[in-house]
Design goal:
The chain is an alpha/beta fold. It has 13 helices and 19 strands. The chain binds inosinic acid and magnesium ion.
Length: 418
């Protein structure tokens, strides 16, 4: 499996944590390469639930874990996650990784409040403002965090600008000073110095040695900063291409691109959603699927599986296989629908429109399937209810990519390989 990337193919929360954990079993290294602690990954091992925002899920398998340059890292969160994890983590962090500073959280909040009607529903973790600083070339990187002199210089350079914006533009009270920030962050940096690692070099060397490396994506394809439903997107690149810029490795190092596809669709935060259900079927999916955000606890919006979206996801990402999750959540529904195309201005459209204006005009066209039973005891594909197999095989055919894994529950053992 040398280079395997695991991608959330929809709006995030497809169950990447569980699937990455599953594939991490055979991995030597597990890498995160984009996003930050806006992500929330849940892994259930032997009945025990682990929730991570920043650390790759592979940590539960005791693997070497790496944080690549494309990630934005909040050191307070890293410390907390490492402290909460009972075993010692074998972790490396790229010096180029940008650091989320306290002003980023406040700016995220201030920006969101000032948006009025066009709120995005960010996780308020400072992710957008941190990526903005990176693009503006005033960011603080991990190499600065672990070097006291550089850190002091950087804080002194950036702090007055951020304080002025926060107070004058967003009317925020800034309670931290250059000194309090330096004191706290230099301490954090000193503690993390031992993790400094050229992730690009380590990953490429490992791949040269034919070691298995799993790259764990965060968020989902339609939250991609360029190809998602802009502006209702995150600030990084969850599409598969994000792995090369997020790690510092050529595109041809990836052999497997695994799409995590939830058997229905969910979205947390605002933005278009053509198959959204606001009825008792939606309530069933929310309740049975525990559709509440891992990071913010917000109730997720839910809807039927959307094939125009999935065909588009396939085009953006070049998936080599699909992992279908949460099929058990559909158990109990009499009929199950799948959106097969959109009707836009009287035309049949097979793909997700490139603009929100187009999406707003889309009427979802559905195909109906008979409901099925999932007991959670199924071990092989053949054990699955025939109606479930009909549903899965239709998806496979329409997306044009084979299903290799089916998840029938949150536990590691509730997994069927096809
Ligand atoms: P941000 O990434 O915090 O800036 O939030 C931007 C949008 O992405 C909001 O709609 C969030 O709810 C959404 N979002 C960010 N991270 C995740 C995630 O891991 N899963 C699902 N949605 C996410
Ligand atoms: Mg999540």
């Amino acid at each position: 499996m040398p280079g395997t990337v695991v991608i959330g193919s929809q709006f995030g929360d497809e169950g990447k944590g569980k699937v990455t954990d599953f594939y991490s079993d055979k991995a030597h290294i597990v890498v995160r390469y984009q996003g930050g602690n806006n992500a929330g990954h849940t892994v259930v091992v032997n009945g025990k639930t682990f929730k991570f925002n920043l650390l790759p899920s592979g940590i539960t398998q005791g693997k070497r874990i790496l944080i690549g340059a494309g990630v934005v890292l909040d050191p307070r969160v890293l410390k907390k996650e490492l402290d909460n994890f009972e075993k010692t983590a074998d972790i490396g962090i790229d010096p180029r990784t940008h650091i989320v500073m306290p002003w980023h959280n406040l700016l995220d909040e201030g920006r969101e409040e000032s948006r009025g009607k066009t709120k995005i529903g960010t996780t308020k973790r400072g992710i957008g403002p941190c990526y903005a600083d990176k693009a503006e070339r005033i960011g603080i990187r991990f190499e600065d965090l672990v070097d006291e002199n550089r850190l002091k210089e950087k804080i002194n350079e950036v702090y007055p600008i951020k304080k002025a914006i926060l107070e004058k533009v967003y009317n925020k009270k800034v309670e931290f000073t250059e000194e309090t920030i330096f004191e706290e962050y230099s301490k954090l940096g000193n503690g993390f110095k031992k993790y400094l690692c050229d992730v690009s070099l380590e990953v490429c060397t490992a791949l040269d040695e034919k070691k298995n490396v799993v790259f764990e994506g965060a968020q989902g394809v339609f939250l991609d900063n360029d190809f998602g439903t802009y502006p209702f997107v995150t600030s990084s690149h969850p599409i598969s291409g994000g792995v090369t810029t997020g790690v510092g490795m050529p595109v041809n190092r990836i052999e497997r691109i695994i799409a995590i596809v939830k058997a229905y669709t969910t979205r947390v935060g605002f933005g278009p959603f053509p198959t959204e259900l606001e009825n008792e079927i939606g309530d069933h999916l929310i309740k049975k699927g525990c559709e509440f955000g891992t990071t913010t606890g917000r109730q997720r919006r839910v809807g039927w599986l959307d094939l125009p979206m999935m065909r588009t996801s396939m085009r953006f990402n070049g998936f080599t296989e699909l992992a279908i999750t949460k099929i058990d959540v559909l158990d109990g529904l009499e009929k199950i629908k799948v959106c097969t195309s959109y009707e836009i201005n009287g035309k049949d459209i097979q793909y997700f429109p490139y603009s929100n204006k187009g999406i707003a005009q889309a009427k979802a066209i559905y195909k109906e399937f008979e409901g099925f039973k999932i007991t959670g005891k199924e071990k092989t594909y053949e054990d699955l209810d025939e109606n479930a197999r009909i549903y899965l095989e239709f998806i496979e055919k329409e997306i044009g990519c084979p299903i290799k894994l089916i998840s029938i529950g949150p536990g590691r053992e509730e997994t069927i390989l096809k």
